[in-house]
């Protein structure tokens, strides 16, 4: 078995974040069996999906493995030795997209400029050419964003069911969102405070809270409750061109047009997605892969027979691939 280290880190870049979220955070680090200080290993960073934090990946699981247990097994099966970091990037928006935004905080800087250097200094791992980032769903979005914007920092990325293809992903649910807001006079604050006052959070409300949060990440309005707004007219159901354009500028499929060449710097780009993802993310993943293929950027993309949920078993494929790419 490897060892799980529990550390605390005081952030500078998160100070003064507009949500008032804590700047001192716990961070977990897995080191492989027999690890000794000074062993110069590659570093992987886990970006967890929405409604969670990477700290949840180290929790005990009643059925199956948590991620440290999975890493123990993969190491036993011959995966190259790596150090894996589980940062906490949770926010009052109930998750994170792992970019810098006035609506949430400088979380891209938090990861690259604070957490990774903090861990590398303590464990003697990582460094230029030996850093990888992986994530699913919103974490997959984060991996895509970091690949497009910080290929100078990372050398390998794994995008797993990552948020992209925003028209397919968000437009259908925006109409459900405004129907829920209707019962609260279309006030985001009234709706959120009502939902947060209830004893139980339903799936539909969970999805609407997530969509509202995307407004704070992609099109923040500091005059609004938690910086949130939607890109749709609640009365006519029409997309508001300026608002929606700000969302679309953050779609990895669109960002590729300006930033795609950055991906050519990476040693490895691996992507996968369920072929009947309930959030329709496979369409965006296909578009992203199509653009990479047309540009001649080396990558792998695999669709498998499943949806968006409970697919951690895919780590058995991409974690060894990342470890191998960063070990040479």
Quick description:
Helix content is 38%, strand content 16%.
Search tags:
10 helices, alpha/beta, 8-stranded mixed sheet, 10 strands, single chain, 328 residues
The shape, in one word, is globular
Mean pLDDT: 98
What is the C-alpha radius of gyration, as a whole number of Å?
A: 19 Å
- The termini sit apart by 24 Å
List the uncertain runs: none
The total count of helices amounts to 10
β-sheet strand percentage? 15-25%
The biggest sheet amounts to: 8 strands, mixed
Order of helices and strands: EEEHEEEHEHEHHHHHEHEH
- Strand order, largest beta sheet: 1-2-4-3-7-8-9-10
Task: Kindly state the percentage of residues in helix.
Answer: 25-40%
Let me know the number of strands: 10
Structural class: alpha/beta
Write the layout of secondary structure elements.
Blueprint: E1 3-10, E2 24-31, E3 43-47, H1 67-76, E4 83-87, E5 100-101, E6 105-106, H2 107-123, E7 131-136, H3 138-149, E8 156-160, H4 166-182, H5 188-197, H6 203-218, H7 241-248, H8 252-259, E9 268-274, H9 281-295, E10 300-304, H10 315-326
Parallel strand pairs: 3-4, 3-7, 7-8, 8-9, 9-10
Antiparallel strand pairs: 1-2, 2-4, 5-6
Helix pairs in contact: 3-8, 4-6
